[in-house]
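User: Sequence in, structure out. Go.
Assistant: Echoing your sequence, followed by the structure tokens.
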Amino acid sequence: MKISTKGRYALRMLLDLAEHQGNGYIALKDIAARQNISKKYLEQIIPIFNNSNVLKTTRGFQGGYRLAKSPDKYSFAEILRMTEGSLAPVACLESEPNECERCGECATLPVWEGLYRVINEYLESVTLQDILDMQREKNAEKHST
């Protein structure tokens, strides 16, 4: 499984919004500048989160984006499923139930199912808030030495 640029940039964008959540609505140009991502690329990511409960938006002079919920309510798994589709390591696990004609006799299927379970459990356990907390801890250690 390989996470695309779109998935990685979406996570960075949402982390930026989480970090600056006390500043109201944040303009894409500000996120783009802080994250060193083109504004055009972010504009392509935003529609992924329309019709979901991920972002709140406002237009006009003070327009921009903010998280709809607190950062601890967003798992990496949720965000990556929106941007990447499935997190399955092999195609046959993308549908439920498994529609592969070989799934009954596939010797490697249990390995892929185990990997898929570990990927999902891990990414479900990591939230935007966890990453913010790790960054704050890292920065505090850097400044205390």
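User: And one key feature?
Assistant: DSSP finds six helices and two strands in the chain.
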